[in-house]
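Backbone-to-sequence.
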């Protein structure tokens, strides 16, 4: 990729993050809850069992799904409403939440986390509180990575998106690398505010960049054709 292309990507990131930052905090909170409701619908579709009292739409599977989430920072979509709904689900059919651990050099693993760890910012493990900080010492003690093949739904952050389900991340390449790993088969859904979706424009893409299966906003479900 040329230097001009790299500069164009960074300029798009800067513009989109600035636009996201300008969304009033109250609107971000309300919109995040709407987005979380859409994610819960995706979980319902996988399990056939309603999360936190929702209506089931298909026969139930025997094992709760593994759902990969992230800990939001700055003006990103908050997944707190999703995590609270999971925490309120009876233990026997509660989805297993996994979150990323950055190990540097585009390498990350997902490890099992408890809902309370994602909700209590004051007591949050360091790898959750600082997701961009690579752990050079490896996966934290007491945490076992989940195999890529075991993840059922990958909920992803991002900076900018287009209506063909193209995604522009923060530039680290961690998610693109993970999605290319052997055995990965999960449905991928990116969550963002409407202000992050480009209209009549495509995000810049390189050969290794992965598109997502769907993009969930407060008002839309954009599916890859």
């Amino acid at each position: 990729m040329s230097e001009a292309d790299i500069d164009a990507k960074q300029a798009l990131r800067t513009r989109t993050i600035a636009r996201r930052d300008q969304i009033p905090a109250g609107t971000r909170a309300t919109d995040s809850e709407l987005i979380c409701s859409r994610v819960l619908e995706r979980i319902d579709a996988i399990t056939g069992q309603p999360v936190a009292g929702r209506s089931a739409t298909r026969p139930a599977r025997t094992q709760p799904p593994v759902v990969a989430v992230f800990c939001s920072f700055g003006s990103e979509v908050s997944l707190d409403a999703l995590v609270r709904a999971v925490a309120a689900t009876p233990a026997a059919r509660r989805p297993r939440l996994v979150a990323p651990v950055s190990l540097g050099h585009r390498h990350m693993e997902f490890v099992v986390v408890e809902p309370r760890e994602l909700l209590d910012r004051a007591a949050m493990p360091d790898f959750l509180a600082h997701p961009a900080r690579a752990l050079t010492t490896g996966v934290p003690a007491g945490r076992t990575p989940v195999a890529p093949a075991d993840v059922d739904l990958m909920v992803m952050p991002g900076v900018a998106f287009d209506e063909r389900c193209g995604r522009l991340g923060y530039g680290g390449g961690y998610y693109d690398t993970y999605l290319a790993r052997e055995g990965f088969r999960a449905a991928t859904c990116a969550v963002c505010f409407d202000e992050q979706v480009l209209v009549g424009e495509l995000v810049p893409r390189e050969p290794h960049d992965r598109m997502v299966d769907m993009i969930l906003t407060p008002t839309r479900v954009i599916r890859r054709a």
